[in-house]
What we know:
- By secondary structure, this protein is of the alpha/beta class.
- The protein is built from 6 helices and 4 strands; from the N terminus they run βαβαβαβααα.
- It has helices at 15-31, 48-59, 75-80, 99-109, 113-128, 136-152, and strands spanning 4-9, 39-46, 67-71, 90-98.
- It has a 4-stranded mixed beta sheet with strand order 1-2-4-3, sandwiched between helices.
- Helix 1 (15-31) packs across helix 5 and helix 4 (99-109) packs across helix 5.
- The radius of gyration is 15 Å and the shape is globular.
Amino acid sequence: MELVEIEYIGEEKKIEYEYQIQKVIKQCFMTENLMDKNLYINIILTTPEEIRKYNKQYRNIDKETDVLSFPIFEKEEIEKIQKNGNEVPEVLGDLIISMKQVARQAEEYGHSFERELAYMVVHGFYHLMGYDHIEEEDKKEMRLKEENILTILKINRE
């Protein structure tokens, strides 16, 4: 079963993006014990203009952003999902990533495009898992989980 479905809107398809995303999502699923669930993630790689439209439509914020997450389940519901052999896979949620913003932030933070893309995927994944960074304590927990995945994959800050 595929863990991730990748779509492109206004961006050129690149195998290296897909390899990186699949590697990161697989590690996220393994770390969070989701491999035995019948779940996958839909990821859209797009432009700043397109992500702005989604941001305005779904969050009423008329500006570009780096990643948007649209979870399907509440945190508690994910633990209860059981794999059934006849079941059609369910989407854990959708991630929309602005590839130009990934490039800008990689340059701004002084690390590679690959590292920033991996971070966006991990960050979005944990939003789909029900984590957020509004409260400081929640932010610390989410950051620890994100950094754990990147460390396991040896995707470090340069």
